[in-house]
């Protein structure tokens, strides 16, 4: 299979699976407005908040989108690209439940309060993953 055709197949699978990934990863809730210090404190001192690294994301993302795992060189490229696009190296996420479901809170999913990670950066991460496959 040609690289172009393979890339198109992976992209199609990724776009289709992104909807599924949104459901599967919806519990990854972040508080966008919380400071780095607040995130670190929550991750260190709370049983319901934990740290999710970019390396972790690029480790499970292939399964979510139905593509191959990244090689070490591709992972290194993806991490560098994510940093160059301004993504943090990790997020502090809620680990025990999806918070905000059914909420009418105006700060839900607006980039200023409670956000689901997949809604906030899912498309960007899938794009980086797909680009990394070519490296």
Outline the structure in words.
- By secondary structure, the protein is mainly alpha-helical.
- It has one domain.
- The protein has helices at residues 3-24, 36-45, 54-65, 72-84, 117-132, and strands at residues 29-31, 49-53, 90-94, 114-116.
- Strands 1-4 form a two-stranded antiparallel ribbon. Strands 2-3 form a two-stranded antiparallel sheet.
- It is globular.
- The two termini are 17 Å apart.
- Mean pLDDT is 76; it is low at 4-26.
Question: Main attributes?
Answer:
135 residues; mainly alpha; 5 helices; 4 strands; 12% strand
Strand and helix layout:
Layout: H1 3-24, E1 29-31, H2 36-45, E2 49-53, H3 54-65, H4 72-84, E3 90-94, E4 114-116, H5 117-132
Antiparallel strand pairs: 1-4, 2-3
Helix pairs in contact: 1-5, 4-5
Write a compact overview of the structure shown.
The chain has five helices and four strands; from the N terminus they run H-E-H-E-H-H-E-E-H. By secondary structure, the protein is mainly alpha-helical.
Strand content: 5-15%
**Given the C-alpha coordinates, what overall shape results?**
globular
Low-confidence stretches: 4-26
Number of strands: 4
**What fraction, in percent, of the residue positions are helical?**
40-55%
Label the structural class: mainly alpha
Domain module tally:
1
Radius of gyration: 16 Å
Task: Tell me about the largest β-sheet.
Answer: 2 strands, antiparallel
First and last CA, distance: 17 Å
Please work out how many helical segments DSSP would assign: 5
Give the overall average pLDDT: 76
């Amino acid at each position: 299979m040609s690289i172009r055709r393979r890339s198109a197949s992976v992209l199609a699978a990724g776009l289709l699976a992104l909807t599924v990934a949104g459901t599967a990863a919806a519990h990854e809730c972040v508080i966008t407005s919380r400071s780095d210090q607040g995130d670190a404190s929550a991750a260190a001192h709370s049983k319901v908040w934990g740290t999710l690294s970019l390396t972790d994301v690029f480790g499970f993302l292939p399964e979510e989108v139905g593509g191959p795992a990244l090689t070490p060189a591709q992972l290194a490229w993806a991490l560098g690209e994510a940093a160059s696009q301004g993504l943090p190296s990790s997020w502090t996420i809620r680990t025990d439940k999806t918070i905000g479901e059914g909420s009418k809170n105006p700060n839900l999913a607006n980039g200023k309060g409670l956000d689901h990670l997949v809604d906030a950066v899912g498309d960007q991460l899938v794009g980086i993953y797909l680009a990394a496959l070519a490296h």
